[in-house]
Amino acid sequence: MQSLQRMCKSTWGASFQKAKHLYTAVVRPVLTFGAKVWTTLESIQGYRKGLTIPIERVQNQALRHISGAYKSVSIPVLQQETETPPIHLYTQELTRQQALKDEGTPSTEYIQARCKVVARECRKKRTRHQPGQVQPTKQTQILHTIATQEAALPQGQRPRPGHWWLQQKWEKEWTETTSMREKAQQGQPLPAAWTQGIQKGKKLHKDWSRPQSTMATLIRTEHVGLRAYLTRQRVPGITPECTCGYRAQTLKHVMIFCPERQESRRRLIQAVGSDWKTITQTRRGLNAATKWMIQESVLDQFSLAREEEERERKEGRRSLKAW
Ligand SMILES: [Zn+2]
């Protein structure tokens, strides 16, 4: 985890793809080691969501490093942007997979037979009734229901074999979060990171440099260190007005409307047009928008990235691909 922290800072270091790979291949397996033993499926007796809280915190920290998002970005958004499911669902999925694998094996059958004997003994002590047929356990019932639902899905709808349950649960949680957020916004459009059915995760960040990926996250979450945002975060001594005099220096204002950037904006408009949705929700749009934002020095935190790019350009190398 520390090496992940050291390897990727918001504007330099390992790319989004590499950092994500490091997390899923090295850090997460350590965090969830033995999860098959210490977690049970939700709605089964003994399930405790609280068990995963400490590792969920570590994961959240890692997701911030991978995406480059500000601390104010909410966790469900981080999980969506990095395509990393919440830990409490991920550990349950591991448990479910293991339970399915164990079903019908001699050791499981032996354990189940012994459990039945113990249950019968207990019942005998409590009542004088002859024990009837032993019911299947709740876990077995749940596993079978999930397996039947999964088998009934049309071929095209299965996201990844075996991961359908996890995807379905995650989607349900995400839909609840977004509808709550929509209500809170009272009809105001949500940032791109809150919209569904668009390209994100590794596919979106493919071959992008660290600064470019971080900038894409800032644009998509609209948590960007511009004056309107800084005022909202109660940074002392900051007022929301733009240097051009407009009442709020928001991302949209800087990229589309600010008269001070009219000249340089032509490049951006030529590349992707001025449709906000195209700019913030497509790879093509974000590719152009992130480069423009870095070259325009809109944010101080990217000055190093810009200098580096300029140096490389002078030396004849191209750090960022052509527009
Ligand atoms: Zn302005």
Q: How does the SSE layout of this entry go?
A:
Elements: H1 2-7, H2 16-31, H3 35-38, H4 53-67, H5 75-81, H6 87-102, H7 106-126, H8 138-152, H9 164-185, H10 201-205, H11 210-221, H12 227-232, H13 251-257, H14 262-272, H15 276-281, H16 283-295, H17 303-314
Helix pairs in contact: 2-4, 4-5, 6-9, 11-16, 14-16
Structure description:
The structure is a single chain. With 323 residues, this protein is mainly α. It folds into 2 domains: 1-192, no CATH class; 224-314, no CATH class. It is built from 17 helices and no strands. Helix 11 crosses helix 16 (283-295) and helix 14 (262-272) runs antiparallel to helix 16. It starts with a helix and ends in a 9-residue tail after the last helix. Residues 318-323 have low confidence and may be disordered. The chain binds zinc ion. Zinc ion (ZN) binds next to loops.
The span between the termini is 35 Å
Oligomer: single chain
Averaged pLDDT:
82
Secondary structure tally, helices: 17
Cofactors, ions and other ligands in the entry: zinc ion
Estimated structural class: mainly alpha
Could you say how many structural domains there are in total? 2
* Shape label: elongated
- Tell me the major beta sheet: none
Kindly estimate the percentage of residues that lie in beta strands according to DSSP. under 5%
Give the number of DSSP strands.
0
Low-confidence stretches: 318-323
Order of helices and strands: HHHHHHHHHHHHHHHHH
Helicity range: 55-70%
Radius of gyration: 25 Å
